[in-house]
Specification:
The protein is an alpha+beta fold. Helix content is about 35%, strand content about 20%. A hairpin with a 2-residue loop joins strand 7 and strand 8.
Length: about 280
């Protein structure tokens, strides 16, 4: 089923909406259908991959890489989530849309959500991946003003959560090809766009939220999948390298973006924006 793109009125970008939803979660689908209708967003449902129904091993998942880099045993719930996002990216590439809004089924929206996306789409020189939610509370440093109190912002530390984000076709190709096989949880893997020369921004303040009354479908399985502490001998150096490279790569982007926007680069060391 091809999605019906929304033409954003100012930027004229064609936006397709993809909602990831498991067959066993009809209540979530009903709730999201109402929310999306109120936001004037037609959507295409992506049937969530049930990782528990897969027969392992599968080529899309590297068990050895997952243990060495993520420090976890095989987690069918995480694998299902990861492959569902890959499926959404591939569905977007099969469409004729310019941008895709990818949603998990526990997201809520601010009243001016669509207008905010339109404003952000006017500044696609700053991003291939536009993040709209997070489960972290890290600083977001303003890179460009969008008006009406909104801005594009860049983070220098890891942000988790993939409840709502927008991607262009270059980012979709990256998710559908370069992020396979899976070696990390999806929200960690797609926070590493800078390693592939892609650009990511947050909208600040966040125009959507992952706070939900629905029980989590993944978090309660993560503790059971943890490996003994000694297995982190490979994980911790890898994470340290990621943190250092993230600060370096995104820091350079932030300074360049602020210079281009006429913002004071001295804010980089002083005034971030707290979520």
């Amino acid at each position: 089923m091809q999605p019906e793109p929304v033409v954003l009125p100012v930027s004229q970008a064609r936006l397709a909406v993809f909602l990831i939803n498991m067959d066993r979660a009809p209540d979530r689908l009903a709730a999201m259908r109402d929310k999306l209708a109120r936001a004037d967003l037609p959507f295409c449902r992506i049937v969530g991959v049930d990782g528990r129904a897969l027969t392992y091993p599968i080529p899309e998942f590297s068990e050895r890489g997952y243990r060495l880099l993520h420090g976890r045993r095989t987690s069918p719930a995480e694998i299902g989530c990861y492959l569902s996002h890959v499926a959404a990216a591939r569905a977007f590439l099969e469409s004729d849309a310019d941008l895709a809004l990818i949603l998990e089924d526990d997201v809520s929206f601010q009243p001016d959500f669509l207008d905010t996306l339109d404003r952000a789409a006017m500044h696609r020189d700053l991003w291939n991946l536009l993040r709209l939610t997070t489960v972290n509370r890290g600083r977001r440093f303003r890179a460009r003003d969008l008006g009406k109190g909104w801005s594009l912002a860049i983070t220098l530390t890891r942000e988790k959560g993939a409840g709502a984000y927008v991607i262009d076709r270059r980012a979709a190709e990256w998710i559908a090809t370069d992020l396979l096989p899976m070696r990390l949880a999806f929200d960690i893997a797609f926070d590493l766009e800078y390693l592939s020369g892609l650009r990511a921004c947050f909208v600040h303040p966040l125009p959507a939220s992952q706070v939900s009354d629905h029980p989590t479908q993944i978090q309660d399985t993560r503790l059971a999948c943890k490996l003994p502490r000694w297995r982190y001998a490979t994980v911790l150096p890898y994470r340290a390298w990621l943190e250092l490279s993230r600060v370096a790569c995104r820091g350079v982007r932030l300074v360049a973006a602020r210079r281009g926007s006429g913002l004071d680069a001295a804010e980089l060391s002083g005034r971030g924006q707290q979520a």
